[in-house]
Every structure is written in structure tokens, then in C-alpha cells.
Amino acid sequence: MDNPIDQVRQALETLIPFLAITDDIPSADLMVVLGSNYMGVPNHAAQLYKQGCASQLLFSGKRGRLSEGIPEHLTEAEFFRDLALRAGVPPSAILLETKSTNMLQNIQFTIEPVSKHGRVMLVTQPVLQRRAWATAQKWWPSQTAIVNCPPPWRPIFQTAGWSELLGLARLAVGEIERLPEYGKKGDLAPQIIPLAVFEAYRRVKAILAPCP
Questions:
Q1: Beta-bridge partner residues of 33
Q2: Is the separation of the CB atoms in 36 and 125 below 8 Å?
Q3: Would the pTM count as exceeding 0.85?
């Protein structure tokens, strides 16, 4: 039988592609980047900007459950802005939304700028991308085309140690549980979870149960 590390890796190979929904055409009028402490997101956004995928970036986020490690005097949006500036994005290309404290508010508080554009790129960390997209589907204008473009997850996944895998697995399990829960609340567009994804979720949750 595979050891727990291999079991978690195998299950995440099913869970992450489902959660990290990605579209083939990375181009839009506006890029909305959801804040957190995942530094791969602003670096990815900056790279997309420099490739000409969007002419303007909107960083969204005050502080919330994913703000750990961010300097206390900065919001998530300001933290991401500073990283994007260091990566070569000019200040004139950056907008900020600094009041939202969760993903639902990220999406709701960006409705006005989003409504001015026909195609909007949505960027967040890979395991959160599907929920972000489903939330945007519910709240952003129906005529807005949403392009999903999370950072690549596989390079980090392949080199992750056990503690990193556990953290990623906990995030993935939480997302699978939030999709139907938040769908029932009306926070996001309902999502169908394939049987293979649900079985992978059950395997990971069973492994995580005894883990500290």
C-alpha cells in the first residue's frame, strides 16, 4: 500500500486540477487579483501584465483568514501591489480595493469596475480559483466574460514536502466542502463535483483526520 505522502499526492492530482480551473486564452481588459498571503499570485499577475495580457490590474482585499505573514500595516491589496511594483508593473496600471475581508466581498466590491469591461481576468491562488469563479459568476454582470488564470500549481506541488502537502491538502478539502455549502447559501453559482473528485476528497480527509 502507498504511504500517506504518496496517497495525498495522488489524491491532489485529482483535486487540484478541478479546483484550479484555467482558461486557454489569458487575455482581458482588466485583471482582478484576489488578495491573500500567497506571493505566487502577484508575481504571476505581474508576469501576465508584462506579457500584455491585461492593461490594468485591480488588487482586492483588506485582511482576512489568509493574511498571516503580511505586515500588519498593509492590506492584502497593498501587499500585492508592492510586490507587483517590485516586479515591474507601473503604478499607473494598478487599482486597489481595500475593504473586502473574504472572497464574497472581493467579488461584490469589484462589481463596479468590472462592469466597465467586457472581458475580465480573474487571478487567485490555484486551489481557490473555482470558488472565486463560481462567486464571480453569481455576482458580476452576466455580460462579463470571465477568464480564469491562476498561477501554475504543478511546479510547486512536485517539490512540496510533507508539511506543505498537508497545508495544500487542508485547503483543497476545505474548498470542496465550501462549494456546496456556499452554493446553498446563494453566495456562488452551484458547482457539480465529479465522483472522482469527491472520492479523492474523501481519501485526503481520512488521511488528514489523525494529522496534527
A1: 59, 123
A2: yes
A3: yes
